[in-house]
Amino acid sequence: MLAERVGFEPTERFQPFTRFRVVRIQPLCHLSAHFQKKCPQQESNLHRRFRKPLFYPLNYGGVQPVPFAGDRRIIGKNPRWVKGAPGLVESAADLSYQIPSCIITSVNTQETASGSIRETVYLNNSATSFPKPEAVYRGMDHFFRTYGDSPDRTGPHVALRSASLVDVTRERLCRFFDGPDDPARAVFSYNASDALNTGILGMLTGGGHCVASAAEHNSVLRPLWHLKERGVTTDYVPVGDDGLLDPADVERAIGPQTKLVALNHASNVTGLVQDIASVGAICKEKGVPLLVDASQTTGVLDISMKKLGISLLAYTGHKSMLAPTGIGGLLVMEGVEVMQTRFGGTGFDSASRPHPDEYPWRLEVGSVNLSGVAGLNAALDYLEEHTPAEIHEHEMRLYDMLAAGLGQIEGLTLYHPVPREKKIAVLSLNFEGMHPDEVGARLLSEHSIMVRSGLHCAPLMHEALGSYPDGTVRFSIGALNSTEDIERALNACRALVKP
Ligand SMILES: Cc1ncc(COP(=O)(O)O)c(C=O)c1O
Fold first, then answer.
1. Which fold has domain 134-386?
2. What does DSSP assign to residue 135?
3. Ligand 1 atom at shortest distance from the alpha carbon of 328
């Protein structure tokens, strides 16, 4: 098992979290008034959620869970379980800090339903992988302590080593994705959304037509919806009853004005992998660049840009690539030119008013995220040693166990659990009679299972599945999950449906 091979002791994997239950929340009007003033968007999200008398975790509406740091004060008297917002907090004081004007008036630090602290099982790897391989933590720490200086912006000594790490990582990425021959075309970004913005806006600056699909994440949809106001038109190819795109539909949607086809490699809702090779062949024949969002597949599927006919590939470090947040990139094949949409410092040629045309600076502005690149580099070591195929096989073995177990529980709807040969280890489901948010919150508060509920930033996909607007509960397995994690998740789901 991968988790064992990299030497993780189960107890080292997580700091224990302390769960709390909110025993009283202030009336909705109080909450609304606060957020209306401070942040209308959050107000509306919270308003929607708190209208429903369910269990809600605190990490909704922009409030993030934080690990427990030891303050076990119980504020208020007679804590008891009532509807409210179970979640994870550092201390009682932290609660009032996180939600000003304090909707929480009392906290109960009794741990789980059984009263014992248990390790949290993390099954939300599609959002971000956690934990990372030890080598990634160590690689970042070592680099940042030793060389963390800025290439092109300091004297030669330390910066040379930073520059060589950045250059080497670009070369490694080109090899990893069998992409451009010129490593300068491996442009770094903050994450996949940033890379997709660069690619989509840069390919459609002068207007034109784009083909995308119903399987897209908001990181593709929102730039396209934004460009609609600037005259760019888009056809969204539907997914069939099997959750997959028909490449012939993509072909039909391509017209003389089409400047870009932008497609998701694997859905973050269903885990279904699209037939990119067939679309790539069509795009090649039609002479239209294909941009692929490989956020969910990088690190678990072998991706050859050349073989699949991909012109532009957007990836992110922090998901199955097992690298940190804040680093990702866009690889641009030779023959495709992405227009600049951002301008700024590059550390050289400072007297020139126009931003340089050459890659990577053409699409990179400001200082590179060096510690992110160091983490990415260490993650590439890990992926070279274990290989995406091996990691995928490990995850799919756990996926089979999860899908088989869930399939035996009555009252669950599983969304496209098969065909497994077209899947990555992501499974969306719903529990009859329970809102997905309630399921997610109860899995966390009662069983210490961390999953994700909702629309997962892919509203069109849920419309296709019939799960819009409430969404689904999503289990996403990572390289460092174990069979024990899946057993615990299955037991938790069985307990939730017990009358
Ligand atoms: C399919 C897909 N595309 C894009 C993204 C955005 O990734 P990032 O957070 O790295 O911007 C995600 C993240 O959930 C995703 O699943």
1. Aspartate Aminotransferase; domain 2 (3.40.640)
2. H
3. 10
